[in-house]
Amino acid sequence: MGIKVSKFGGSSLADAAQFQKVKEILFADGDRRIVVPSAPGKRSKTDVKVTDLLYECNRLAGAGQDIEPAFSKIRERYQGIAAQLGLHVDLDAQLEEIAKNIKLGAGADYAASRGEYLNGILLADYLGWDFVDAKTGIFFDEEGRLDSEKTQERLGAILKQHAYAVVPGFYGCDTHGNVKTFSRGGSDITGAIVARAANADLYENWTDVSGCLMADPRIVRNPEPIRYVTYRELRELSYMGASVLHEDAIFPVRIAGIPTNIRNTNQPDEPGTIIGYEAEDYESEHMITGIAGHKDFAIIAVEKAMMNAELGFGRRVLQALEEEGVSFEHMPSGIDTMSVVVSEDSVEGKKERLIARIHELCSPDSVEIHSGLALIATVGRGMVRSKGTSAKLFNALMKAGINVRLIDQGSSELNIIVGVDNLDFENAVRAIYRAFVVKEPRW
Ligand code: ADP
Ligand code: ASP
Ligand code: MG
Question: Of the candidates 29, 119, 199, 437, which lies 20 to 30 Å from 411 by C-alpha distance?
């Protein structure tokens, strides 16, 4: 008998009806023996995720205000699900304990993690499976990074003791024994860690779309699903904005050689997307695999005549960034120019200091920071072999009247990144999609 680890996202577990779908999916395949739930997500476009309500409670507590207006909504969500499913588990004491701890200042990580914790307790009761608290098996190190070795050893040992288990997503334990969460969307990472620790045959990631799509469905109408994608391609896509899978959910399963299958809880018959190591057997119908991107980057443009001959120039520019704790995304450069692309967030409130420090360290002719840049990655393993990919891409952007402010093609030829004005972002994504995917344009 094999093992499949199935992670369900927030919308997949948003209410009692969704819980029923999840149970049906799990019980339809005997290999599905470990489940990783998220906290209840949005039931409609205007709804609020339980995780966001918990962060709000923590904010209110920190400001010395009453948490009850937000906490009562959380209580209602869980009690509503429990009542509709006819569960007997008593959540009241747990809810009151959590409210008390938040008021006492337990912190943002503790507060946010309780969304997954409580949903895990409900789901375990509903399925009749064992509840395994992620705090006992997932560990972070002193720097706040995942302690993979300790986690693998401890979680592996714990999971061996349970034939069927529910492990809540999103959090683990820090070196002081306190709860610590991953970044937002981090239940995907928990799922991948659990799959590795359980030595699973497959990591299933169940969400509200039928796999990873060739473009963000909020920008392109009905984009085609990607049937097969390599871990390297998906890492590029998710890092650049394909938010269907957390970019850090790739490493644990990739190391272990476990494939991931992204599926739709609301359309369980659809095959979704398979993410694997190699892709030789899977020819894509299109020249590219997918398009992803996001807005709000800035370019630090440095110019100096004869820059090319000055040893250590680039290092000194990057030193200024390092001193300010800013990491860079891309660095296209010319003979006398160097452009460093950073996220707008990361330089907020630091721009003047950065410019002054680059002047001090490098004596350039000019340093300017230009804001309002969007980056779009067109990704595909097929690009290595096919000629004319960039011609097609730039032609599409030209026809759409979009000015390209920056170009970067990685040496792996896995992607081409273009920078456009924030205002052109959506049109640029649609233009690229049309050029590579749509045979008969629908627009
Ligand atoms: P979950 O709560 O199940 O973890 P998320 O909201 O984190 O779900 O991720 C699913 C959402 O990701 C989709 O509803 C969609 O809006 C968004 N998304 C962005 N880019 C893509 C893409 N390329 N393919 C699929 N979904 C995408
Ligand atoms: N509930 C957490 C969040 O909203 C984690 C997750 O959904 O993956 O970010
Ligand atoms: Mg998610």
Answer: 437
